[in-house]
Amino acid sequence: MRPILLLCLCCSVTAAAAGVYHPAAEATAAVPAAKNTDRAANCGLDGKPGIETEVLHRVNALRALGAVCGATAYAAAAPLTWSNQLLEVARAHSNNMAENNYFSHQRPDGSTPAQGIRAAGYNSSYVGENIAAGQPTVQSVVSQWTHSPEHCKNLMNPKFRDIAVACTRNEASSYRLYWTMELGRL
User: Fold this and answer.
1) Phi, psi of 168 (to 5 degrees)
2) Per-residue confidence of the chain (186 residues) as pLDDT tens digits?
3) Which of 7, 28, 50, 154 has a CA positioned 20 to 30 A from the CA of residue 140?
């Protein structure tokens, strides 16, 4: 068993804030229209509600409350909407990191998250990405993103409207589980 967990310094194009997830906070959120049934592409964690639904609920509950990210207080923000376009980008990046055993925002071809998102047809000038590796549950990855000031800034950024998260499992890679969250605004 490898206890190492990684978080990156998050990436956001244009402006992009550590708060705490409070399960008692309720936020309404649209359930993703499409679910991934490939266990490798959802880390084998697609339980009853699915990882997509759980991440969306947890992030929107945080946004509904507001948060302190590092030294910056963020007021409540509008809930995010699931984006299947961003999901394809998140899946591709998590799969790529797991298959090629690396952990970085930059893709092996040298492209950035913004370039990957735009190449997928999501034409926004305002996008962000959070990545993580090794966290075994949705709760643990969202908690770590929430407690990291730069990742939290992305979660709370009121300019973002869309979200997608993917997780890929590869037992032969260094961290086994690779998470990618894509954020944007059309």
Assistant:
1) -120, 135
2) 443 444 454 444 332 222 222 333 333 344 444 444 444 556 766 555 578 889 999 999 999 999 999 999 999 999 999 999 999 999 999 999 999 999 999 888 899 999 999 999 999 879 999 999 999 999 999 999 999 999 999 999 999 999 999 999 999 999 999 999 999 999
3) 28
Q: What values do phi and psi take at 101, rounded to 5?
A: 50, 55
12 near 151, Cβ under 8 Å? no
By residue count, the chain amounts to 186
Residue 185's Cβ-count burial label (10 Å; 0-12, 13-18, 19+) is middle
Residue 100's Cβ-count burial label (10 Å; 0-12, 13-18, 19+) is exposed
- 149 touches 78 (CB < 8 A): no
Regarding beta strands 81-82 and 67-69, do their DSSP bridges make them parallel or antiparallel, or are they unpaired?
Answer: unpaired
Mapped onto helix, strand or coil, the DSSP state of residue 131 is strand
Cβ 82 vs Cβ 164: under 8 Å: yes
Provide the b/e sequence for 31-69 (b: ≥16 CB within 10 Å).
ebeeebeeebbbbebbeeebbbbbbbbbbbbbbbbebeb
Spatial distance between the Cα atoms of 49 and 31, rounded to a whole number of angstroms: 9
